[in-house]
Amino acid sequence: MTLRKPIALAVSALALGAGLALAPATTASAAYQCDMVESANGTVYAGYYTGNTIQPSSTGVSDAGIEAQCILRYKGFNPGTIDGVFGSNSRAAALAFQKKMNRDHHAGLTEDGKVGKNTWPWLRNSSYY
Fold first, then answer.
1. How far apart are CA 12 and CA 3, in angstroms?
2. Per the database record, which ranges form the Peptidoglycan binding-like domain (predicted)?
3. 2, 43, 51, 70: most buried, per Cβ within 10 A?
């Protein structure tokens, strides 16, 4: 009976240690790869979302979020980790993009850091860098 408790503690410690060892790999795998493609008509895609209407989520992973983050990074606006969650870094990158498009091209975009139906076409257009 006295041997059971030390064995149970050792097994628990081993399991806990293994779980901690795996935690960084799980976090690192949350980053997505951006394989950018420019279509013949000058539209940029990363392969996660092809539309122009869905606003990326700030609370969960979305294909639109991954797509917007990839394009922002491709165009030189750093959204942070490409994780599909449109958090503060992504919003700051989108805001900087919107300001640049308004300043340089008179785009008339709302400068709110959100990628919606008005910002997507400007983001996708390969001629605006």
1. 14
2. 67-121
3. 70
Full-model pTM: 0.76
pLDDT at 14: 43
Number of other residues whose CB lies within 10 A of the CB of residue 7: 9
Cβ 98 vs Cβ 109: under 8 Å: yes
Q: Judge if 61 and 18 occupy the same domain.
A: no
Residue 22, classed as helix, strand or coil, is: helix
Q: Which helix (H) or strand (E) holds 38?
A: strand 37-38
**Which residues are 33's β-sheet partners?**
none
What's the pLDDT score for residue 125? 95
Tokens found for residue 26: 């799980």
Tell me, yes or no, whether 52 and 115 share the same domain. Answer: yes
Instruction: Give mean pLDDT in consecutive 10-residue pieces for the chain, a chain of 129 residues.
Output: 49 42 38 94 96 96 98 97 97 98 97 98 87
Half-sphere exposure of residue 116, counting CA atoms within 13 Å on the CB side?
A: 8
CATH number at residue 49: 1.10.101.10
